[in-house]
Amino acid sequence: xxxxxxxxxxxxxxxxxxxxxxxxxxxxxWKEKIVDMDIIDTGSxxxxxxxxxxxxxxxxxxxxxxxxxxxxxxxQDYGTGREVWRGNPGDIYPGQKGRKKVRERRRWxxxxxxxSVMNLRDFMADSMGREFVGIVADAFNDQRxxxxxxxxxxxxx
Length: 157
Hints:
Number of strands: 4
Distance between the termini: 31 Å
């Protein structure tokens, strides 16, 4: 087998480890961003960030990752909220009636999450590809082909 190819057992172990680390790392990054960007009033958003257990099929080829946090975190990321009250007719900008827009967008969640998900996608594609190449390499192992060829030489179809 080529050095770039991996066995099924090794591939499953590698994927399980990477996915577990991904979940934990995302939570750590988000908490760090919340603190760095001072998105702490009561601390409830910081305390709400959590990862739910990973659900995966036995081969880690289909994985469900769930991270959760308070909805308030999305409004911080989008830069919307407090100055807009329910029923507002839309006149929220300076020079118009209504409140001045004071909330600024604090992207603690979206940019890092997107890039991390793309890294996870690339890792899974590489891991499954190397596992597949290993399976094909085993299927065309010289010993098996030699035995198969000897069999067909001695037995006509």
